What we know:
The chain is an all-alpha fold. Helix content is 65%, strand content 0%. The chain has four helices and no strands.
Amino acid sequence: MADDGVLDEGTETAALQEVLAAEHAAVWGYGTVGAALPLDAREPAVAGEVAHRDVRDRLVALLESRGADPVTREPGYTLPFPVLSAVDAAALAVVLEEGVSAAWVRLLDQATEPAVRELAVGELGAAEVRAVGWRTAAGRTPVTDALPGLPQA
């Protein structure tokens, strides 16, 4: 935040970098999700990976248009738990979607441009839609989150 209390573009760009890092992790994680699912059940994992690749590429282009060097993906990521079954895969997909949701919410807090806010709202909604399907597959209830991306009380 600038000294005058107004959010600056640098803060927004930093938040965009954080979202990009979360999207890199989601793309990588969906490879693990898909690998743990039977062949005939991989469609949602493929769709999730494609969605995250697409938004990742949009974020890279946006950051480059601002003259920023987009954060690069890590060579690998630590899984939060072993993924040994289809239920584990669904639970990992929930973690991935909730992770990007939290980053999108932080971007909403820092966004100064209406187009960035619109992007964040749209992607936050898309992540929650995917998360609902994965929560269902993982047997979690409730399957919806009224305020996705916010810390759970």
